[in-house]
Amino acid sequence: MARTAHAAPARLAVPLALEETAGVARQAWPAAASVPMPRGRLRDPDVWIAAPGGRATLAQARALERWPDGSIRWLLVDFLADVAAGGQATYTLHDGPPPNTPGGGIRREARAETRVLDTGPLRVTVPGGVATLAELAAGPHRAQPIPPPTLHVEGAAPATPTIARVAVETAGPVRTELLVSGRYPQGIDYEARLAVFAGQPWLRLQLTVTDMADAEFAPVRSLALALAGPFTRAALGVDGAARAFNPLGADHHELVQADAEPAQLDGERAGRHGDGWVRAIGDETALTVVARYFWQEYPKAIEVAADRLRVDLFAGRDAPVLLGSGAAKTHELWLVLEPLDRSTAPATLAAALRAPLLALPPADWIVASHAFPQALTPAARGARDFLARLAAAVTRYQANARTERWDDGPPVPCTARTTEHPRRGF
Question: How many domains does the chain have?
Answer without folding.
Answer: 3
